[in-house]
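New here. Invent one.

***
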Amino acid sequence: MGLSVNTNIAAMNAYRNLSTTNNAMSKSLERLSSGFRINRAADDAAGLAISEGLRSQIGGLTQAVRNTQDGTSVVQTAEGALSESTSILQRMRDLSVQASNSGSLNTTATTSIQKEIGQLKQELDRIASTTTFNGTNLLDGTYNKAFQVGANAGQTINVTIGTGMDSNGLNVAGVDVTAVGAYTNQGAAGAGAVVTTAATNTTAATLAIQTATAGQDFAGAGFNVAAFQSLTGSISFGGKSLDLGSVQYTSTDTAATALTKLNAAASTALGLATGSTPFAAATNTLTFNTPANVANYTDAGGALSASVGDIAKATPTFTAGTGASAAITAIDNAITQVSSVRADLGAKQNRFDHTINNLNTTIENTTASESRIRDTDMASEMTNFTRTQVLTQAGTAMLAQANQSTQSILKLLG
């Protein structure tokens, strides 16, 4: 190789390698000081994109945990209030049972019992109207909210309390242990009359119930669901009984819907065939029809025959309900309704708890994945840093030696 002054290839080579080593050491210092393997997109473009996506997931999942915890708080608030509502209904039931003991109570005692029941109904209403979470009423029958329990859109859990938990929503607003049932076995037509036609061995018996309130018909243009809701007393037939007040109606029921509910309840309570329609409605009269021809029934099948005793069984009887007995039935239905809502809320709370556990596990695993992509392996990076540090020192020394190598040319000039 010839000697030249203008171009020092050895120095250029040493400088190039030293520059590369310096860049590598600078990156190592950056990674060691920040703790991140990826500090800019140029460090790992694909890794950065994946890492940012995982970070979005982690942030969303972390917030979802807090959202789910809010859901648990809402459910606990509602269920806690309903726990007290159940206690109130249980007390109302005890009072109604006490009021039913007419053999030892006078009118004054029954009136005093009703006063306490009245206060309890007011407390039911107060609880339903004042139980709120962050300003939202939970027990007025309108609560239907979604909780975001995931990092992505659509990952929600709905909580619905679709029935008002006040005295009206629970159908106990009209409970009055001092009142007598609106329907009585008068034997003649009139408001609230119940008229029975006895069966024969060839003719079916009928039991006709007329509406107790004018303008509230069971069918037709004057239909009002209140006609069905006000039914009290019980019908006995074939050794079994149907409590008319036990059937639940809603304010939105049509005439057909209300009649269907009544027939379904009658079929179950009286042991009739599924789908039987013993009741028929026409304007202001509700008619209970027994089998068309009792002579077709035989004792061998466990049904009615044409004997005098069995014909008597084929004639339905009506028993007017007292206010106290109707109250017991209404309160039992209310307790069942509240218990059903509480059970649903309890199930939702358990679901929220499992959701939180799952989210925390997912956060942990996703964070580990993001860390593997973005974080620096400090031990490995320290090894690289030590290597580049030694190479920098060696490169600097070699550059100095390369710069000195041209000094030998001066000897030739001397």
In short: The mean pLDDT is 84. The two ends are 21 Å apart (CA to CA).
